[in-house]
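Z., the sequence and structure:
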Amino acid sequence: MTRTDMPASFDERAMLTTFLDYARATVHAKCEGLSDEDAGKAPLPGSPLMTISGVVSHLHWVEYSWMQVMFLGEEDHGPWTEEDPDREMRIGPDIPLAQLLADYEAQCDRYRKLVASLDLGTPAKRKVRSGKEVELRWIIMHLIEETARHNGHIDILREMADGVTGD
């Protein structure tokens, strides 16, 4: 996977998809060489679910939720429940980091192909909580924001786990 934030062209689609892929690739870059043990550490006393594995699992399921459930209108088969709405974070440390990353990348590849086949103005099948309708372009922008924000969390957790820093 190539990690670049420079699109091949400067049209809206190229910029949106390039920045989303850059943020996705950054997840992988920040996890490179990390042990499963370190990926499962929760070093913040006030945030026991904040582990690198939990964040990677969360990112996988966030994309699933936005693309499969909200955009395509499919039934929600995510790991969360009403009793445990953050379960995707909780189960992350129980799954090897390499598997989490491979599953995330395979899913991202499916969504890349889906996005490439559709107009950015295609409306989502479901409305957001506020009742507003959103388009594919909004979902992509939201995923950029979500992934970039969580890359910051992974960056801090990685430094706390083994001292590794980087972009």
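DSSP finds six helices and no strands in the chain. Helices lie at 12-31, 36-39, 52-71, 87-91, 97-116, 136-162.

Let me know what you think.
H.
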